[in-house]
Design goal:
about 20% strand, 2 domains, alpha/beta
């Protein structure tokens, strides 16, 4: 009977040690990060001076390094509209080239042409679906866009326990996105670290 009591005591100690080890591993584990870049929002924000200093250019590799510092990068995706002109290689196009040599998955689709001659490339649905679909594998999502079209996706991510950062120039960031974000990062304030 004494042997059985000792076995039970040892088993209880082993369970306690296992529980402590699991808690420590969780505390040490780096936060899992997903970065989702609305490329036109970021580039036009810089070009139009929407809260960006004149001539501001963001180095996409430095931006990714800044956002993933101390975190485990699970995925970084750049959503880039492209011209359907066969004479213009995709990897050299203005919305693709800045991401090519860095750790981004680049999602492209041709820009839509309208009767008035204007063109537009919109990835709101694709980007929102990708973010929400990956939510269970992420602790933090950095949305590099200030577009209010992502507001519902932000709410869904947060309802699943994901922390959401909105990263954009102030002039291209909606009031709604600033209010919803767990953290807002104005790109102009970090240009010394992420600029070209």
């Amino acid at each position: 009977e004494e042997v059985r009591a000792r076995r039970e005591a040892l088993a209880a100690q082993a369970q306690t040690l296992d529980a402590r080890r699991e808690t420590q591993e969780r505390a040490v584990r780096r936060l899992r990060l997903g970065v989702f870049v609305d490329v036109p929002n970021l580039i036009y924000g810089a070009e139009r001076g929407e809260g960006a200093p004149d001539g501001a250019t963001v180095h996409m590799g430095k931006l990714l390094a800044y956002l993933s510092q101390g975190r485990e990068l699970i995925r970084a995706t750049a959503y880039s509209p492209v011209s359907d002109d066969p004479a213009e290689p995709v990897e050299r196009q203005r919305f693709v080239e800045p991401f090519v040599r860095h750790d981004y998955r680049i999602v492209t689709k041709p820009m839509k042409r309208f009767q008035d001659g204007s063109v537009k490339g919109n990835f709101d649905v694709e980007m929102a679906l990708d973010m929400v679909t990956m939510a269970e594998r992420l602790d933090v999502v950095s949305i590099v866009s200030g577009d209010a079209d992502f507001a519902r996706a932000v709410e869904l991510l947060q309802s699943q326990g994901v922390r959401v950062e909105v990263v954009a120039f102030s002039g291209s960031t909606s009031v709604e996105m600033r209010a919803l974000a767990d953290e807002y990062i104005d790109v102009a304030t970090i240009l010394d670290r992420v600029g070209v």
